[in-house]
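This is your field. Please look over both lines of this record.
***
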Amino acid sequence: MARRLPPLVALRAFEAVGRLGSVRAAGEELAVSHTVVSRHVRNLEQRIGARLLRPAGRGLTLTPEGTRFLAQVAQALDLIERATAELSAARRRTLTIWCAPGVASRRVLPRLPELEARLPEQEITLLPTLTRPDFSRAGLGPDGADAEIIYLERAEPADGVRAELLSSPRVFPVASAAFRARYPEVAAPADLLRLPLIHEESTEQWERWLSRAGVTEVPPLRGPRLWHAHLAIEAARLGQGVALANAVLAGEDVATGALVEVVPSDIRLGGYHFLAAAARWDDADLVLLRQWLRELFGTPKEIGA
């Protein structure tokens, strides 16, 4: 029996308008005039016998029928896009991993050949970034993440996304041995306020750490902001001040003496999490990736399954 489907061009026009909330924006995305987009949407509404969009201020909003229809159309277009990407790729499949820069360079990269050996059919793409991915585009080229490794205070539940805690390491202040030797009187967390502190993108992490360490009055903090944890740790190794580190990023430096822990503490501010689309959580490549990361980071703990 022949399928009774609306024209694909009309479905694409409606999906773009529904997603963007604007006929003009949809036309720009589809590289056609807004009048063509409007005509496609009107024809689609006539074809299915339902009103899908209605005016809202200077834009458009979905009707209840349009909301339900958009969800199904978007899912169908995603499936078509994914199938096209899989068939048109002349090379091996790509597994794209978005990763916090420090973890990428200090933890994942040194042992990346191990992962490649476990996934010989995959082309591994490791993207060091603090930008959060859109998992709805997983497997759809370099802009789509198949998995994410990120440091978070906690992994908040999100629609269509699952998370697993890989490690919740202790966070502690570090400096070079030569720098530490210049301040023998430093013995408690409050003493650190007299030293040059090295920050990531803001002073927030140091403020949280000092508060958790029992420092009741934390003054406005100063010091260089280096944005990335691994850069802050490297600055500490070069003797430029005190940075906050953990065993995942600085364990080897502490073991070799390149860095020393300035004051003892037992504070945890979050952890490294693995995130992926719930629909792909049990895909063989992601299962193998998670198993490898568990070995790399330690005993995992499932969150919000």
Remarks:
- The first strand starts at residue 53 and ends at 56.
- Confidence is low (pLDDT under 50) at residues 299-305.
- Residues 10 and 40 are 5 Å apart (CA to CA).
- Residues 93-168+270-303 form a domain with the D-Maltodextrin-Binding Protein; domain 2 fold (CATH 3.40.190.10).
